[in-house]
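call fold(seq) -> tokens
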Amino acid sequence: MLALVGGTIYTSPAEEPIRDGVVMIDGEKIAEVGSSVPQNAQTIDCSGLTVTAGFWNSHMHFAERKWANAETIPAPELGRQLHDMLTRYGFTSVFDLSSMWQNTKRLRDRLESGEVLGPRIRSTGEGLAPPGAAPAETVYNMMGWIKTPFPEIEDASQAVSATRKLLNEGVDAIKLFVSTPTNNFLPEDAIEAAVREAHQARKPVFAHPNNGDDVLRSKRC
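ret:
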């Protein structure tokens, strides 16, 4: 058993902190939070420090080229990238809201196998978008992004097909780019169809609006 001793512990945003508290860790799990230390426990002095639950990052992307070919990146290098971007800031769970799904899935597989240390990953895979939503080549180069083929949706039937494909491939949610900077937009029946398919599979849907009309269009669906 490992005891983190003497820190200020926040167990919940709604609860008062436990001051000079103890967090007991058994293996890889928190066993108990309180104020007493069992005999023979290994201790780490956390006096003057704050202990919280791990943070969620609920809007990020594994889109930069440094994540490309995730299955071949050496484990130490991949672990450093995850640490530098996420875990050193306390993020133990993340939701990737649009990236190349097969690549992100390979990254997640390596984490879940224990080969690489890092956060738990949930992902939408490629976001569904109106025609013409893909950035220009110069934008990909300027931003250093992986070139990703977004499913371009013109009607409800295409929305159903694209949503089912992503869900069958194992994504955790669906992402909708409601419009493009050039004012192409997803039809409301396509948004409704995608939302219906995702909710039937008990998966959430995220919308990326570019203006107030997009917000209202998403809200109606």
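The helical segments are 75-85, 101-112, 137-143, 156-168, 188-200, 212-220.
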